[in-house]
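User: Before I run my own analysis I want an independent prediction to cross-check against. Here's the chain; please return only the structure tokens and, at the end, one sentence I can use as a sanity check.
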Amino acid sequence: GLQDVVTFIISQHRNKVFGPGTKELEVVLLLNSPGGEVSIFGWGASQLTRLSEEKGITTTACVDTVAASGGYLLASQTHKLVCAPFAHIGSIGVVVELLNYNKVAEKYGISPIIMTAGDAKAPLTQFGEITKSGKQHVQRKLTQTHTAFRECVVQGRPDLADSIKEISDGAVYLGQEAKELKMVDVLMTSEEYIYERVHAGDRVLKLCRMPRKNINVRIPLLSHLLKHSGKLGQVLRNQDIP
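Assistant: Structure tokens:
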């Protein structure tokens, strides 16, 4: 998972696997996501914040197609945000959608029975009666989540502090407009950005997850590698990598 990748990069950076003379490591994330569940993307943002706060590491998010809602939450936690001109950026908002069959059930003589303990437990359900207090409770939670969303974005991109209320109405922007609003830093595709780094003389490495069926050697668990400081680093340094 993402946490394993972040831990791997940080540990190998601290063990100087990328070379003892490496003053700064840039981690480029190829990020394309329309968003999803709040808790999952909030957790992902925490992982990227952890990576961005590591001394000697800078992070760059490259978005070719979309970084909306939770996707933008992730991208905003990097030091630099690069996107293609027609990428979809933003959608800083929260939504809850469900179908309620209470009246349909009553029409056919079915009486749903829902029992809860706690006034705020399951305020809106698919078969329960929709009440004013239930809707108000869910709306409060949505507003709280939206506020936390905006605060997290500003934490990652302080330049948006003055405009966050205007740009966090759920609207989606094309890359050019997003740059004008300071939601992104550079208009460029990921391929262009990586090529520029190569052309500048940087040593560019791609981190890949290898399918188990293609691995013919026994690789220790990540936890085992971390217990033996620099073990993987010693292995990589002994390889002749062009």
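Sanity check: Residues 35 and 71 are 5 Å apart (CA to CA).
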